[in-house]
Amino acid sequence: MASTRQMKSFFMAVIFFSLLVASLPVFAIGGENLASDFRSNGDLINGWYWLKDPALQHYAEWTFQNIPRGTENLTLDITALATNRASGGGGFPAEFSLIYGFPGSGFKTQPVTLPNTSSPDDPLGYTCRGRVTISRSFFSGASTILLRVERTSPDANHVAFRKESIILVTGGGVSPFLEGSWLPETDKRNKAALIQAGTYIGDLGGQWEGGQHDNNDWYSVNLQEGQIISLYLTVPQQANFNLYLYRGSASSSAASSCRGKEQPESIQYVAG
């Protein structure tokens, strides 16, 4: 008899004893509110479609379906790559036109500039990320919307996208951080940052709040029954920290790793 599969929330707490920069690969399910369809005629390089042609014919296009009805504006969590030329340098913002609408309607164009958010350890420095709000009043009542991005001019920076580049946030929801993101410090369990499978970099700790040292950083993942989560936390020199996995709102950890100074921490756990 097959068991019923239910989505569960898991939380990770990193408890540390020195300022550190760490990489956190996570293997789990993630990514709600992703596009149902994606297409691009850009140049495909390592999974990203680059919009860079002088004639400005390159585009990337997403279709989002089953959008909850409501009157609140829609928020897009957008991640792109940007450089100033082919095989160019890093540190440049992503500038493009965002075109949106729904079948049977007109389309609206909105200029967008995403700041470069590359981490200091990023060898290329291409990553740009930001949030963009689009007005619901333009397509009130629509359950399907189309999003399209194009470069603004032949002299604009080259930009690259993939299907996961745009996550739609509706109804006050929280979108997951994408692989490669520089994770924020989240020292409250009820504000844990939702992450997808991938490798992340973050500066864990070193902040004071209310006279107390920030001893915990929290991140969450979603798993289904029977799935395996594998966590691995690298250890900088002279660092000492522990890794804990909590299930839902449980007060005690379901698994932990406490190996001591300069030892990498790892956990493998099967969701029950």
Which key features would you list for this structure?
272 residues; mainly beta; six-stranded antiparallel beta sheet; five-stranded mixed beta sheet; globular
Structure description:
The protein has 272 residues and is an all-beta fold. 0% of the residues lie in helices and 45% in strands. The chain has no helices and 24 strands. Strands 5, 6, 8, 11, 13 and 14 form a six-stranded antiparallel sheet that branches. Strand 9 and strand 10 form a beta hairpin. It is globular, with a radius of gyration of 20 Å. The two termini are 16 Å apart. Residues 1-7 and 14-32 have low confidence and may be disordered.
Summarize the SSE layout with pairings.
Blueprint: E1 7-16, E2 20-23, E3 26-27, E4 37-40, E5 43-45, E6 48-51, E7 60-64, E8 74-83, E9 94-101, E10 107-114, E11 127-134, E12 145-150, E13 158-161, E14 166-169, E15 182-183, E16 193-194, E17 201-204, E18 208-209, E19 212-213, E20 216-224, E21 228-233, E22 241-247, E23 255-257, E24 265-270
